[in-house]
Amino acid sequence: MSNRNLVNQTIQKLENLLGEGTYQVGDKLPVEKVLAEECGVGRSTLREAVKILEHAGVLTVKQGSGTYVNQHRVATYSTEQLLEIREMLEVQSGKLATSRFTTEELMELKEVLFERNEALEKGRFAHYVEADLNFHWLIVKASRNPFLIRWYQEILPDLKQTLSSFVLRTDNYSDNTELHQVIFQALVEQDEATVVAATLENNQRELVRYAKK
């Protein structure tokens, strides 16, 4: 079994434990060794599952204390609204960045894209989400527009939690790697129309994921 599938199964086992009421809001989970045995996996696999659950706001890891079950926070916005503003910012940033990327910045973007794809393949979902957001963040920064940069920076923590929650829904999750490759290549070729079209498609797929949750 691939590491990605093993992490998927561990996530489901942990969510089942929480859903069945084995652990309640505020409860401290067993130490890593015990919890790994309870899930029937190695400790490294458990760590990856816990990381993505932490990113999604399900768990809180307190250094030196342990891992606790979170109380779901009440958001002042809907997920749909968050994805709408993300689309607006990424599309406009992509338009501007197409002609403003430096060679060095494109090299960095290529490295982050490789890092993103490798993390997904190996089932390192928390790292995958971080690298995925970093890919888009680098494009926003390349827009050289301080307002776009500030506004996108403000929604990054919420995007991290939302996208992590999408990854948890492994039955419905489908990766957009090919679209990210298209966006990168279009930026290299300074093809603004393709950058915009692929960015729109990527965001529309996120809305579909949200609808399936």
Give the low-confidence spans: none
Our count of domains comes out at 2
Shape-level CATH architecture of the largest domain = Up-down Bundle
Residue share in β-strands: under 5%
The structure class reads mainly alpha
Please tally the helical runs, counting DSSP H or I stretches of 4 or more residues.
9
Keywords: DNA-binding, Transcription, Transcription regulation
InterPro entries: GntR_C, TF_FadR/GntR_C, Tscrpt_reg_HTH_GntR, WH-like_DNA-bd_sf, WH_DNA-bd_sf
Protein name: Bacterial regulatory s, gntR family protein
Pfam families: FCD (PF07729), GntR (PF00392)
Give an overview in words.
This protein is mostly helical and 213 residues long. It folds into two domains: 3-69, Orthogonal Bundle (Arc Repressor Mutant, subunit A); 79-211, GntR ligand-binding domain-like (Four Helix Bundle (Hemerythrin (Met), subunit A)), CATH 1.20.120. It is 70% helix and 4% strand. The protein contains nine helices and two strands. Strands 1-2 form a two-stranded antiparallel sheet. Strand 1 and strand 2 (66-69) form a beta hairpin. Helix 8 packs antiparallel against helix 9. The two termini are 26 Å apart. 32% of the residues are buried. The model has no long low-confidence stretch (mean pLDDT 89).
